[in-house]
Amino acid sequence: MSDMPKCPQCSSEYTYEDGTMYVCPECAHEWGKETAAESGDGSRVVRDAHGNVLSDGDTVTVIKDLKIKGSSSVIKVGTKARNIRLVEGDHDIDCKIDGIGAMQLKSEFVKKA
């Protein structure tokens, strides 16, 4: 038996591996191996820009100047966000930043402190 995961869109069992991705030949859906690992055990793994696993309560540092939508303010490189909370969605980190307030950040723009 093949130990390849079934396609998450069409449940086809004819998936194959292509580099760091899985591909479904029936519906042409592609997904990463990390995504397949997340769906296997039900827990979601969130990683920072350097590949470190993040968890609730961690402290992270911003690695890029981030413009705040709807404001002229900017979150500068090196700004720390303490006691983060992981949430579902595109912006997968909920945190409070001193001097700015509650924010949602993408994990690709932070590193674990």
TrEMBL record:
TM spans (from-to): none
InterPro entries per UniProt: YjdM, YjdM_C, YjdM_N
Protein YjdM C-terminal domain mapped to chain residues: 46-113
Superkingdom of source: Bacteria
A matching Pfam family: YjdM
UniProtKB keywords: Hydrolase
SUPFAM superfamilies documented for this protein: Prokaryotic SH3-related domain, Zinc beta-ribbon
Domain Protein YjdM N-terminal per the UniProt entry, residue ranges: 4-31
GO molecular function, one term: hydrolase activity
Assigned protein family: Belongs to the YjdM family.
Record protein name field: Protein YjdM
Organism expressing this protein natively: Geobacter metallireducens (strain ATCC 53774 / DSM 7210 / GS-15)
Gene this protein is translated from: phnA
